[in-house]
Amino acid sequence: MMQRYTHHGLTWIDLETPTRNEVRELVDEFGIDSLVADELLLPTAKPRFERHENMLYLILHFPALHHTHHSAEQEIDFVVGKEFIITTRYDMIDPLHKFSKTFEVGEMTGTSGIGDHAGYILYFILRSLYVAVDHEVEYVRTSLHDIEEQVFEGREKEMVAAISHAGRDLLALRQAVEPHRDMLQEMEIAGRAFWGDTFAPYLRGIVNEYYRVHNHIMRNTESLHELRETNNSLLSTKQNEIMKTFTIMAFVTFPLMLVTSAFGMNTVHTPIIGAPFDFWIVIGIMLGSTIGLYLFFKLKKWL
């Protein structure tokens, strides 16, 4: 499916799962390199940046963790010339769809703020995409806040799985975004030569958007590690208290079993046995031993 937008002599072509015929049309219209045209037909596993004589070619993957999509990463290919930009994708990408609506409104009203070459369209698209990634990070940050409240309400065991899920999401965000750094730095250098020094602040702005999102991911990753350590400490403390209680119970009941075993032996001269009130005397010895041990533990502040 191909969507075409125009504004002040600039053309934006948005392709979803492009066909060979659609790509051939673009090659004929914009003079796209044949190797780049072949790359547009199928997804690419890794990000890439290439400088060509009449265009820049950029491949980036963006995370989409909390939406209904085919995969957790979505690829966008950017082919950018002086007066045109082509985006190809293989799934519905929400921020790109929203930007197209904004672009259409700006096109009709003349208030889009787009400059005199296609680099400005690239700038606004990438900024929208990084804002969307920031929303993904904010979703995880909200989850961490909820997990923290549950941890200190005594639900440490239930939060182990929730912390692991949040860690998985942050790892996916980091793995998707971190490869952008090298590509954007290469694009900043090549874009300055391609569009001129007046566009340099916009190229730097794209890089700054990347670093802002990446730093947000890293801050939340640090928070996750601290939360995991806190949860593990509370779990260990609770388990130690339980083991302490069981140990004390076992130690307190040991004299009872010892007395019972001693007076249960089948011997001729067992003391007390056969005397008046022998049963109550044995029970008293057992209770006295138990109370004595309890008072000893209290004195040592083990209870």
Description:
The chain is built from eight helices and six strands; from the N terminus they run ββααββββαααααα. It has helices at residues 20-30, 34-41, 94-109, 119-151, 156-177, 180-195, 200-263, 278-299; strands spanning 2-7, 10-16, 48-51, 56-63, 73-80, 84-89. The chain has a six-stranded mixed β-sheet. α1 runs antiparallel to α2 (34-41), α5 (156-177) runs antiparallel to α7 (200-263) and α6 runs antiparallel to α7. The N and C termini lie far apart (73 Å).
Keywords:
single chain, 303 residues, alpha+beta, six-stranded mixed sheet, 8 helices, rod-shaped
How many strands, which pairing sense, and closed or not: the largest β-sheet? 6 strands, mixed
Number of strands: 6
Order of helices and strands: EEHHEEEEHHHHHH
**How many helices?**
8
Strand content: 5-15%
Give the overall form: rod-shaped
The radius of gyration computed from the alpha-carbon positions, rounded to a whole number of angstroms, is 35 Å
Helix percentage: 55-70%
Strand adjacency order, main sheet: 1-2-6-5-4-3
Mean pLDDT: 85
Query: What are the low-pLDDT stretches, counting only 5+ consecutive residues below 50?
Result: none
User: Roughly how many Å apart are the termini?
Assistant: 73 Å
How is this structure best summarized?
The protein is of the alpha+beta class. Helix content is 63%, strand content 13%.
Task: Give the topology, please.
Elements lengths: L1 E6 L2 E7 L3 H11 L3 H8 L6 E4 L4 E8 L9 E8 L3 E6 L4 H16 L9 H33 L4 H22 L2 H16 L4 H64 L14 H22 L4
Parallel strand pairs: 2-6
Antiparallel strand pairs: 1-2, 3-4, 4-5, 5-6
